[in-house]
Each structure stands twice: as structure tokens, then as C-alpha cells.
Amino acid sequence: MECQKEKNRQRCPCTYEPCPRKGICCECLRYHLKMRQLPGCCFHEAGERTYDRSFEHFARLVQAGEV
């Protein structure tokens, strides 16, 4: 299966513009999981804009009902 980079890029909610993985979901996911994080697409807009992609931040948002 070929990467749909341009199609993925159009739907990618990540606001970190210089990201070299934008649109390459498999690389993005691999990178963030290695860093003990989730990619920006797992967060709602306000949560993503904090750039805190840690599992702990995600868990706090879930507990607060914000995801």
C-alpha cells in the first residue's frame, strides 16, 4: 500500500508546521510512541495546541472529559 501523504496532510490536525513527518502517519506514530507520546491527531484542537503530547496529558484530558 502506498502512502497517501498529500491526502493525509490535508486532514492532519497537527499545528507544528516544520514537522517533517506531517502526512506520513506511520512515521509520525512511530516517532511519538518512541518518545512516549501520542501524535497530535489524538487530541482535540485545544489539547493539541499545547504541544504536550504525553500519555499523562492525554489521560488528564480523558479524565476531565475533554477528549
Fold topology:
Blueprint: H1 5-11, H2 25-34, H3 45-48, H4 55-63
Can you describe what's shown?
This protein has 67 residues and is mainly alpha-helical. The protein contains four helices and no strands. The longest helix is centred in the middle third of the chain and has 10 residues. The mean pLDDT is 93.
Q: In a nutshell, what does this entry contain?
A:
The chain has four helices and no strands. With 67 residues, the chain is an all-alpha fold. The chain has a domain at 19-63.
Top keywords for this entry?
mainly alpha; 4 helices; single chain; globular
Outline the biggest β-sheet: none
Number of helices: 4
Please provide the count of β strands.
0
Rg computed from alpha carbons, rounded to a whole number of angstroms:
12 Å
Termini, distance in Å?
Answer: 31 Å
Q: Helix proportion of residues, in percent? A: 40-55%
Give, in order, the helices and strands.
Answer: HHHH
Label the overall shape.
globular
Average pLDDT reading: 93
Protein name: Cytosolic protein
Pfam families: DUF6485
